[in-house]
Every structure is written in structure tokens, then in C-alpha cells.
Amino acid sequence: MNEADCIVVGAGVAGLTAARLLVAAGRRVVVLEARHRIGGRTHSDRRGGLVTDRGASWIHGIDGNPLYSAVRAFGMPTMELTVGSYQPDSRPIAYYGPDGDRLDQAQVDRFAADVHAFDERLARAIAESPRGTSYETVAEEALADLAWPADRVERVREFVRHRTEEQYGVWIGELDAHGLDDDQVEGDEVVLPEGFDVLAMRLGEGLDVRLEHVVTRVHWGSDGVVVTCGDRVLRADRAIVTVPVGVLKSGALVIDPPLPEPLAGALDGLEMNTFEKVFLRFPRRFWAPDVYALRRQGPAATWWHSWYDLTPLHGVPTLLTFAAGPCARAIRDWTDEAITASVLAALREIHPDADLAPTSVEITRWQDDPFSRGSYAYMSVGSATDDHDLLATPLGGVLHLAGEATWTEDPATVTAALRSGHRAAENVLGQQVAIETLWNGDVAGMDRRGRFG
Questions:
Q1: Cα–Cα separations (whole angstroms), residue 316 to 25, 50, 313, 372
Q2: Model's pTM, two decimal places?
Q3: Which of 110, 356, 368, 405 could form a disulfide with 377 if both were Cys (CB 3.0 to 4.6 A apart)?
């Protein structure tokens, strides 16, 4: 006898979204989660009475975004912080030149205008590029077309490299030319003062979620699915697998029989990135007031170049910086103390007289997490934008894949995770389901074992 109509592997936003919509439609659903908590890569640390989003932080563009609609419907407070997409301007940013001195507004305006002029030419270079072209190649072509002096070109070149690393956690030469095609932000960006994982908690209410259940095999066929979890086997009519690309490619979870084409080829073209966060809290704010971020230019900023002011979230002076791409790989085996010293040395160059003794530092280690193996997926050179959606192609009406890497329009975001879970639920049901069912549907009130354990 089948234990459920559908087994969902992974209790991140994609898995919880799919499960919640299926339960609201009357299906028996079991969610198996390897971790001791729900949320996946939405993980909020609450030690010391402060909320630190160690995973997802931003909603990138609230206009027409169902994720934002869900957050509002669940009563989650938000705060505008529109620099999450590495804009050169649009909000107050304190820029520091290669010599460490702060740029005046006229200098900032000229630099931002250069970035915008470059982006116009970059869009054309991307559109004209053949398949298999790297983002670095098209960026260099666009820079050459501008025919600027060397120092002016270099400021924009390093900005684009940093933007690529912060957006996708990868060196610019390893990203496909179309890897940022869908990285468009519509409307303000917001962060969540109470923690991003509150969304997962609300989505998980009333669901049968079984924590610390590590799935090692999913066998699928015309007669349904058999899921191996430790020494136990569970059967269902269908399964939705929402684990990250890093886990799918590691072999830690075996899909049996293996993914056929076009899914296998799509998965080959996607890779997991290297992207970590460093949060520094200080006894007092030493940086310029009324700025959203601090940015450094020049060779000294190869690793640590951007710090985001999170002070307004909780009233505690806080800067967030990222170790992305080559930096994240290089410091992977460093101690927290060594990483902290490196970041503070970079800060000291632009604030030589400041008291740089943080009261606390938190550093993420997503590369070493066996249940993610990185932060999110990116398109390697030679992959295609459509690979995201191809990875979600239903298999025999039995097996479905979902997660941020399976949504083409805005991959690598929680919005993509939520939308992919919505699509997977519709594919299982064979009919359209209003996304509003997530917050309006009767889930907790149904005859289900609502538990986390």
C-alpha cells in the first residue's frame, strides 16, 4: 500500500509550496527533509536575540512577484534595501577609489553613467554571441567597442566582474554569456527583518514533514515511485524532488533509472556556485550615514569590495560582505578568524581611523553543507537559458523536479523556488491552481498529520 499520493523530497520553499498546494487539493503528501529543520537554503539564525539570514536575504523585485504576495499575506514585515542586484547607483552608495579615498558625487555619477553605457553595448554583444561564449568574452567585446582610456575601462571591467560574482557566485569566465539574461529586477528589493525562514514555517503549517530523513534513492516507473530513506522504503504514486543541483550531481541521491534527455543534458550545463556571507556587527557605526552600501575600486578590492549596511533591520551596526567565486574557493579552508582578519584589513584601508573591533562575526559555509553543496546554481559555458525549464520536464507523469535551478525566468532566487513548486503541483494535479491557494487554501484544517519530526 502506498503511504502517500505524493512524496516530496526536500522541505525548502519549492518543496513546501508544492506540498501545500497538493494537500489543499486533497492529496496525501509526505515531505522528507534531510536536515533537522525546514527551509533549506532559507535559514535564519536567531542566536543572541538577533536575526541573521544565513541563506536567502532579498526578494529581488516586488512588482508582480508572487513571493512578495505570499510574504505580505503571511503578515511578514519587510524593509526596502534595493542594492541586492548590484546596481551602480539608484540608491546612495559610498564609493572609494583605488587609492582608498571616497569619490565625490560627480565622480560617482560619471562612473555610474559608464556602467549604464557599457550595459547597453553588453546587451547587444550577448544577443549576437554564438552558443558556448563566456560572459567574460562578451564583456570584453563590449568594453572594446567603447574605446575608452585604460583606467576608465578597468573601473567598469572590475565592476562587471564583481557583479557577476555577487549575482552568481562564479568567476566571469565560467558563466555562460546568457547566464544573467533573466536577472532583471522589477520594483524595489526588500529584506525580511524577522527572518526569511518564517516563510518556510508558514508554508509548512499543517503538512506531514519528516525531519532528518535523508533520501538516498528515488526509483520511478510506470507503477509509481519507491523512495529509499535510511533503512526504510516509502511508496507513492508520484514524487517531487526539490534538492539542489549540487546534490543531484553528487550521486548522494540516486535517481533510478537515471534522468533521460533532455533533463540529463540540462543538468550537465548547470553547476553549483561558491558564495558565502560574512556578517560583522560593531559597537558603533563608523561608516557614512544614509548609505545603503560601501564599494571599493581597484586591485585592493579583488576579494572584499562591497559591504551592505544592515543596521536598519535591527538597530545594531552591521555590515554584510560576500565571499564569491574565486574568493570563496580560496578561503574555504580558512578559519573564521583568518577570514575576519582579511575582511577587516580591507575595511581598514578605507576607514583607517575607525574602531574595527567587531562584537560578533558570522560566516556561512554552504560549500561544505552536504545537503546543498553550494548556494545556488549557475549556467556554465555552453548551457542554454532553457535548461532551467528542461530540468523540470515531468517524467512519465510520475517524477517531477523542482527548485530554484528549474525556473528560467528568474533562477537562483526564492521566487524561482516558489514558482517551480507551484508548477510541480499543477503538473501532478493535471490542472491549474491559483497561487493564492498557498495562503488562502485550507491546509492545516484538513485531516492530516501536521508535524515536524
A1: 44, 9, 8, 30
A2: 0.95
A3: 405
